[in-house]
Amino acid sequence: MILDGIQMFLGIICLVIAVLQFFGKRRLIKKFIFLFFFAFGYHAFYYGIYLSKIIFDYPFLYATHLVCLFIFAPALYFIMRIMIDEDFQFKKRHYLHFVPLLIRTADLLPVVLASTEEKLIIMKQKIPLYFPEEVMGSERFLVASVYAFVYTSAYVFMICRKINWKDVLANFRNKIHPKDALFWLVLMIVLVWASHIAVVVCAEKRYAVGVKTAGIIMTISLIMMYLFSLVFPYMLQLGILVLTKPGFSVKNYVKSRLKNVNLTKVEKKLHYLMNEKKVFNDEKLTLKSLAGMLDISHLQFSEYCNTILNMSFNDYLHNLRVEEARRLLIEKKSMSVTRIGYESGFSSESNFYSVFKKITGQTPENFRKENHKKKS
Predict the structure, then answer these.
(1) Cβ atoms of 336 and 376 closer than 8 Å
(2) Biggest alpha carbon distance in the chain?
(3) pLDDT digits (tens, 9 = 90+) for 130-139
(4) Which of 69, 119, 138, 186 could bridge across to 59 with cysteines, CB 3.0–4.6 Å?
(5) 45 near 216, Cβ under 8 Å?
């Protein structure tokens, strides 16, 4: 009964976290955090009242938790996608991830819409009054546990496909200090995964206490991960960089000038300056002036280019200018090549030709001719 109470309490905490997402700046990631913690919190709370048989006092809630799995699994996937890619946009095709939710909801409607008397009859058949261990060992519970594990594993696999495992292993060989916040992030993720496996194993062994304990550990780990993201936002950012940026080194990062810089904010602002404002068109743009726009020092921005963008500032600027020149060469047929060079931010015609050929392997004139031939 104590374990059931703890599970219900933790479920309520998850629901509170979900509600908190309505406060502050509205962002796409907060919508999915709400969906994740609401679904997981309700699921945890439901199992607390289900296994303690309090559910008999609230029969209208019976079976309402069965849709939660189809919410928090895809929600977690999209949370990770947004954390990995700040520019991620939720498109119409992404709604396909929630098709299983609609199918499961339709399947459960006859049970959910049944009368209180009908639900009580079903519950008395499904829930042993004195031996909750029988619920754990039942074929129905075991199949449900395995299905939940496989379904969530599929989403974990999709997230793992975004990870550069070679660089992750290289960073762990650098011996991250156990007191480092990243260590605790990894530990909590492992706890969530291990506790999920434990639920399946304990269910098969008819070990009710084991299932409840594993569920509690899983819920606590998820709550701690959320608190972790609030207390150590930059260390969480470090974890994402380790997982997704090719060639990123924890060892170098710890010693770098970027340690206390909000890299996500810098990346977002840089994207705005280059893609919206197109400040690279200014031939007088320098490393120092652009660093000032980003509110960081020129030394920090130089390191950002080399470690995060994996290129020097000049190479970064040249790539942007050449990309702009390529666009103008295709779209502005009447504009001269020399004019396009200046419009793209190059300081001289010779500099434009030299850089363009170095990056594309051909002269601006040849590039324009080839594209016109393809269209014709």
Answers:
(1) no
(2) 87
(3) 334 444 444 5
(4) 119
(5) no
Q: Quickly count: other Cβ atoms within 10 Å of residue 75's Cβ.
A: 23
Q: At what angle do helices 313-331 and 298-307 cross, to 10 degrees?
A: 70
Pairwise CA distance, residues 144 & 142, whole Å: 5
pLDDT-derived band at 213, boundaries 50, 70, 90: confident
Look up residue 85 and give its two tokens.
Answer: 């890619």
Q: Where are the domains of the chain?
A: 2-244, 263-375
Do the Cβ atoms of 32 and 68 come closer than 8 Å?
no
Of 114, 45, 22, 38, which Cα lies nearest the Cα of 76?
38
Q: Which alpha helices (DSSP H) does the chain contain, by range?
A: 2-20, 28-51, 69-84, 99-112, 116-126, 132-137, 139-160, 165-172, 181-204, 208-231, 233-244, 250-254, 263-272, 287-293, 298-307, 313-331, 337-343, 349-360, 364-375
- In whole angstroms, give the CA distance from residue 275 to residue 323: 11
Contact status, residue 246 vs residue 164, Cβ threshold 8 Å: yes
The pair of three-digit structure tokens given for residue 31, joined into one six-digit string: 């919508």
The whole-chain average pLDDT of the chain stands at: 77
Q: If pLDDT is split at 50, 70 and 90, which confidence band does 163 have? A: low
Q: Give the per-residue pLDDT at 341.
A: 92
CA 322/CA 352 separation, integer angstroms: 8
Look at the chain and count its residues: 376
Superfamily of domain 263-375: Homeodomain-like (1.10.10.60)
Q: Cα–Cα distance between 166 and 9 in angstroms, integer?
A: 40
Higher pLDDT, 201 or 47: 47
Residue tagged 């929630």 (tokens): 98
What does the pLDDT average to over 101-122? 82
